[in-house]
From TrEMBL:
<comment type="function">
    <text>Hydrolyzes RNA 2',3'-cyclic phosphodiester to an RNA 2'-phosphomonoester.</text>
</comment>
<dbReference type="InterPro" id="IPR009097">
    <property type="entry name" value="Cyclic_Pdiesterase"/>
</dbReference>
<dbReference type="GO" id="GO:0008664">
    <property type="term" value="F:RNA 2',3'-cyclic 3'-phosphodiesterase activity"/>
</dbReference>
<dbReference type="InterPro" id="IPR004175">
    <property type="entry name" value="RNA_CPDase"/>
</dbReference>
<feature type="short sequence motif" description="HXTX 2">
    <location>
        <begin position="126"/>
        <end position="129"/>
    </location>
</feature>
<feature type="active site" description="Proton acceptor">
    <location>
        <position position="126"/>
    </location>
</feature>
<feature type="active site" description="Proton donor">
    <location>
        <position position="40"/>
    </location>
</feature>
<dbReference type="GO" id="GO:0004113">
    <property type="term" value="F:2',3'-cyclic-nucleotide 3'-phosphodiesterase activity"/>
</dbReference>
<dbReference type="Pfam" id="PF13563">
    <property type="entry name" value="2_5_RNA_ligase2"/>
</dbReference>
<protein>
    <recommendedName>
        <fullName>RNA 2',3'-cyclic phosphodiesterase</fullName>
        <ecNumber>3.1.4.58</ecNumber>
    </recommendedName>
</protein>
<feature type="short sequence motif" description="HXTX 1">
    <location>
        <begin position="40"/>
        <end position="43"/>
    </location>
</feature>
<keyword id="KW-0378">Hydrolase</keyword>
<comment type="similarity">
    <text>Belongs to the 2H phosphoesterase superfamily. ThpR family.</text>
</comment>
Length: 183
C-alpha cells in the first residue's frame, strides 16, 4: 500500500483550484490533470508500506500532531517543475510556508527514527494541478483568479494512493487534528 501525509482541502479551495486548472487547460496541448477529489498539499511522501507499518505511521501522526498548533496558509503563486518536454504545474504557497516546513521536519524526524527512508530532496510546499503538461505557444493568462482567503490547516491526513477502475485515487486512511494550544 502506497501512502503519504497531506493537508486535505475544503470544497471551496478545490473549486478554486479546478477553476485555475480549467483556465490553464486552454493554453496546453495535453496533460494529466489532478482530479478534483485528489487536490491536497503533500507534507511527506512515505511510499509503500507493509504489515505493521500502518500502525507505526498513525502513532507517529498522533505524536507529531499533539505538538502542532492549527495554522493557516495562503495560496496563489503559479509555477512549474520542468522535465524534458513537459512540466509539473502547481499552485504555490504565499504565506505559511514556514509552518508547513516545520511540520515536514517533525514528521521526517519521527519517520526516519522509525526506520523509514528520509526525503532525498528539499521540501517545497505546493499543490499539483497537473503532470506531463505540454504547453502550446500561448502564454498562461495573467487573468487567473486569486484565492484571497486564508486556508485553515487544523489536521493531518494519511492518504493511500491507489488506482480504482484505472483512475488514480487518494483515499483518506487516518486523520489527526493539530492539538497544541487547543483547549
Amino acid at each position: 500500500m502506497r501512502v503519504f501525509y497531506a493537508i486535505e482541502f475544503e470544497d471551496k479551495v478545490k473549486r478554486y483550484l479546478k477553476n485555475v486548472q480549467d483556465i490553464i487547460k486552454t493554453t496546453t496541448y495535453s496533460g494529466n490533470y489532478t482530479h478534483y477529489t485528489n487536490f491536497h498539499l503533500t507534507i511527506k511522501y512515505v511510499g509503500n508500506i507493509y504489515n505493521g507499518e500502518y500502525e507505526e505511521l498513525t502513532a507517529i501522526m498522533d505524536d507529531v500532531c499533539k505538538n502542532i498548533e492549527p495554522f493557516s496558509i495562503r495560496i496563489g503563486d503559479l509555477g512549474a517543475f520542468h522535465k524534458k518536454n513537459s512540466s509539473i504545474l502547481w499552485v504555490g504557497i504565499t504565506s505559511g510556508k514556514q509552518k508547513l516546513k516545520s511540520l515536514f521536519k517533525e514528521l521526517e524526524k519521527e519517520i526516519v527514527e522509525s526506520g523509514f527512508e528520509a526525503e532525498n530532496r528539499k521540501y517545497r510546499p505546493h499543490i499539483t494541478l497537473g503532470k506531463k503538461i505540454v504547453f502550446n505557444n500561448g502564454a498562461i493568462s495573467d487573468d487567473l483568479p486569486y484565492f484571497d482567503e486564508p486556508i485553515e490547516c487544523s489536521k493531518l491526513t494519511l492518504f493511500q494512493s491507489h488506482r480504482v477502475d484505472g483512475v488514480l485515487t487518494y483515499t483518506p486512511l487516518y486523520q489527526k487534528s493539530f492539538s497544541k494550544g487547543v483547549a
